[in-house]
Amino acid sequence: MFLLNYLLISAALILCLLTPNGNGDCYAAEYCQDVHTNITYMEGDSWTTSDCYRCYCWKRKIQVKSCLEIENRTSEITNWYFPSIRKSTLLSMLQARFRNAPREVIVTRNESLHIACPVLPDPVPNPITGTTFYPLLRQINYVLEILGKGCCSLYGYPASVHSDCESVWDPQYCRYLVLDRRTRQPCRYQYGLVGK
Hints:
Helices cover 16% and strands 42% of the residues. By secondary structure, the chain is of the alpha+beta class. The protein is elongated and about 100 Å long.
């Protein structure tokens, strides 16, 4: 699951970069820290970096592992191994075994490396009554909570700029100015802005 999230983020960033007439200028990172100021942010915070990116911090859960655990109760299942049981009955018995909602356990990064699922016992048949006692199972999901940030640039890149004009970066306002090369006044020709 952890790897899947990074693959999806990577694919989204690659698509942004390859889209025609668009310069995708966004990125995601695992920690909510501004690399320029070394300030760490909390879930829900947003900030603007010194290089003109708007960033947001959020908490996300990554499912590390799922296991089954035994409930304290047991379930009596009659004729478990006999083929005379209709499929709908069998499905209803299986659904009854998993009717409890999964339990979620939050683990640390170090704990997530050493999770071992418990060994489940075999069903206990009763040859006298023809019934089988099978433990009720409950799913347990081990999740890792991490802070992540997503940042996008606050400016657009000038596109299709006339040859008499040039784009100049204005760091005070986080934008490009398109100026006439000779007069240094705003360009009188049309141009476009792409990306964000």
